[in-house]
Design goal:
mainly beta; 4-stranded antiparallel sheet
Length: about 350
């Protein structure tokens, strides 16, 4: 983008966001002291838009989750004066810090809570593409495509250790002193690797399904989702005490809140390119599936591809993100009871995840 275009885009964004105000009783927080060029509310949320591989077009979208006002420019370039890079894979909030993992660009940004970059860590070549991360104490643990989980010091942003787990690992969660990571192998693996956080020296394994992808912990239960042998997107529960995996259905994206898994299943017929999407809610404690939890959604959501689901942990509201893989994504907002609230566009392709601050 030329400097003149960037300047005009920033001015336009600033004008649009003139109405963003703090909705908190805490008057100590000041967006300008954080180095923000955009007036922000304390009730702010950030979407990472993955972008397209090798296009250098990953972006961030900012919106106020109380008023639903959206800043319609790429927040990252506004705050930092440069493009974010290639394929934004994950975003993690840790107190007053945010970490964005960039897979294609092989780096991790450490930002403050208004999206201003404080440092950019390049991932060593022997680890290859970083994928997803989780925080434990002073460390950020990140899966890397060379087959490792890297242990990164949050203060120095340097690698202090690594454990080999299997080729092309994906998602990672922390539970009961252990890390659980899916080993996809792009279809050549079917395991979940387990690493003890104290020793951090080797992995043990559980078999789940072919090409596992997502993993999530909900109230002491571990759930795994993957592509399966025939790309049917199976998901189920892994009993970490017995090692048994119990398949429960089909799901392509999910998020959890207070004992409930919110599931999206987008099935595409690649001969016609027609997509059918269903949404449901699964009670982890009772095992009950509610296929009518989501109500009032626009008809087009049923034929759109869901790329991510996130939940506001302050309110329980659910956000379903869709993509057509070429244009800016859409977000469908439901309240905590599953009723449709509104729809808005993002500032980039392939919206993947939202984090919420206050």
């Amino acid at each position: 983008m030329k400097l003149r275009s960037l300047f005009l885009a920033v001015l336009s964004g600033l004008a649009i966001t003139a109405g963003f105000t703090s909705c908190s009783d805490d008057d100590d927080w000041d967006w300008s002291k954080e180095g923000s060029k955009v007036e922000m509310s304390e009730s702010r949320a950030f979407i990472i838009n993955e972008g397209s591989m090798n296009k250098n077009n990953a972006t961030m979208t900012y919106f106020d989750w109380q008023t639903n006002q959206v800043y319609n420019q790429d927040l990252f370039i506004t705050q930092n004066g440069t493009m974010m890079g290639d394929v934004a894979q994950d975003i993690i909030v840790d107190g007053k810090d945010m970490y964005v993992i960039m897979s294609g660009s092989k780096c991790i940004y450490k930002m403050n809570t208004v999206g201003v970059s404080e440092s950019r860590m390049s991932i060593p070549n022997d680890l290859s593409d970083p994928r997803y991360g989780v925080i434990d104490g002073n460390y950020l643990y990140v899966t890397c495509y060379a087959g490792y989980v890297a242990k990164i010091n949050k203060k120095t942003m340097s690698v202090e250790g690594k454990v080999e787990i299997g080729k092309l690992p994906e998602y990672i969660v922390k539970y009961n002193g252990k890390l659980y990571c899916t080993c996809s192998g792009w279809g050549a693996d079917k395991r979940v690797a387990v690493i003890d956080l104290k020793s951090f020296d080797k992995a043990s394994y559980f078999d789940v399904m072919d090409n596992p992808d997502r993993i999530i912990e909900v109230d002491g239960h571990i759930f795994v989702q993957g592509y399966g042998a025939y790309y049917t997107y199976p998901w189920g529960e892994l009993n970490v005490s017995t090692g048994k995996f119990n398949e429960l259905g089909n799901c392509s994206s999910w998020a959890a809140y207070k004992g409930t898994l919110y599931l999206a299943y987008s099935a595409t017929d690649w001969s016609t390119y027609e997509t059918n999407t269903t949404l449901s809610a699964y009670n982890v404690k009772t095992g009950a599936m509610n296929n009518s939890f989501f109500k009032g959604a626009p008809a087009e959501l049923g034929s759109s591809s869901v790329y991510g689901v996130s939940v506001n942990d302050k309110t329980g509201d659910i956000y379903v993100m869709t993509t057509d893989f070429v244009s800016n994504g859409q977000v469908y907002h439901f309240d905590s009871n599953g009723s449709f609230v509104n729809k808005f566009g993002t500032t980039g392709v392939n919206p993947r995840k939202i984090v919420f601050l206050d």
